[in-house]
Hints:
Blueprint: H1 8-16, H2 26-30, H3 34-39
Amino acid sequence: MSPRQTDKAAADQWLGLGADLISFGRAFIANPDLVERLCQELPIAPHDEST
């Protein structure tokens, strides 16, 4: 079973429901520039399980 990945759409949905904190975990490790990618609506690079 693969873990659920949080993307911008999912984060926006949770924020709309009143969430105070969103965890990106593996997406952040694979994208050190994640904040910039989300702000500019750029694609998020997939994480690599082997690394």
